[in-house]
User: Which sequence fits this backbone?
């Protein structure tokens, strides 16, 4: 489940490397990176948004919508199955697993 949650998080926001040495930079396009790019472009403008700015906003909206669908699908399918499995098991949060 932990791995699945990390994969889902990676779809929305670029994950940092497990072992980072020095500066870290990723050119991966995610919903978070696209929204951040649109936000910084809009803050830099002194005039009305251009067609490129509007295209950037629409691309970021599409990526956010896709991420939202992924999260909703995960919650409806995998998380509910995991929750039911946990509730139907005899395991307790406070039990020691040996």
Assistant:
């Amino acid at each position: 489940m932990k791995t699945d949650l990390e994969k889902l998080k990676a779809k929305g926001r670029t994950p940092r490397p497990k072992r980072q040495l020095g500066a870290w930079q990723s050119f991966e396009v995610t919903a978070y990176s696209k929204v951040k790019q649109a936000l910084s472009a809009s803050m830099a403008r002194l005039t009305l948004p251009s067609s490129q700015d509007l295209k950037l906003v629409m691309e970021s909206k599409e990526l956010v919508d896709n991420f939202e669908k992924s999260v909703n699908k995960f919650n409806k399918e995998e998380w509910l199955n995991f929750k039911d499995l946990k509730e139907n098991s005899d395991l307790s949060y406070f039990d020691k697993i040996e």
Q: What stands out?
A: DSSP finds three helices and no strands in the chain. The chain has a mean pLDDT of 82.
